Amino acid sequence: MLKASPRPLRPAASSPGRVLPVFLFLAVALMIGWLLVALKFIFLPMTLALFGTFLLNPPVEWLQRRGLPRTVSLILVMALALAAVWLGGRYISASFMAFRDGFPRYEERLESLVGQVRAGTDQFSFLTADHLRSAVSQISLSGLVGNTLNSFVSVIGYLAITLIFLLYFLPDFPSLPDRIKRSFPDKRGSLLRRAVKGIGQKVQNYIWAKTLTSLVTGLGVGLICLFFGVDFAVTWGVFAALLNFVPTIGALLSVIPPVLVCALQPDLGQLATVLWLTGCLAAVMILTGNVLEPMMLGQSVNLSPTASLVALFLWGWLWGTVGLLIAVPAMAMVKFTCDNVDSLKPVGAMLGN
Description:
The chain is mostly helical.
């Protein structure tokens, strides 16, 4: 009796219902990324204005509790913010211009060090005078400072535009919960109001904590550079305070310039001095970054190191220098939103520390 042969197994066909949402998600993500880059001149100041609203609203409310009308409080806080931006931009610009003017002195020291290395090139077959000349010719210290100055000028320009957006965002911020309540009278309204309040608190805690730790970092770096006699010691302190807002890589970037200047400074070119300066600056970065900052932030951000690093590269790629500054608070806002939406809670758990 003939038996029917078994039917061959076929791989299960992928369900179109599963592929379509993934495709739509990728398409929407690409479209949002393209819009963020193409309309950077709009979205970047608006994002900074949103952070500025969360940051400046508490001082405005504090002045109101002291008896000042809200309009007067807004004008006073905005005037102080504008003065801080203007004075900071003037100081940074003047510092970098002075640093650029002192480059010939350091270039002579660099040529002297290169000459000393060239004297021993016979002992290293891979290190020749031609290779050294080619490498040195590609180093443009003045161009490096010029590019850095342009980046800071760009940041100051975006901050100036942000102040214009703040003129509209900050006065309307107290009425936002009532507007949400009128627009969404169901439970969505309470969820949105709780989200706005929670995001505001997280952003405020993060920015104030980073500001205090940045002041401590800048003060420590400036005093150490003054103690060792490094040129432009105050500038390196301000530079370190600003770069402290950039997570992970900010501390490294703030140590490199004073160490290089110390190595190229004729009266401080000894190897022991450079090593001691590097160790002291590294100790300041470790204490502020691994002890003081976690103690002040606590669980206000609660982001995993991987999420912070991904946010740093993503926002830095999208919006450059300013993107590095807002990477962590922006990711903290995303995490808080995911924690309060049932369908996105697994994503929030993955982003958590």
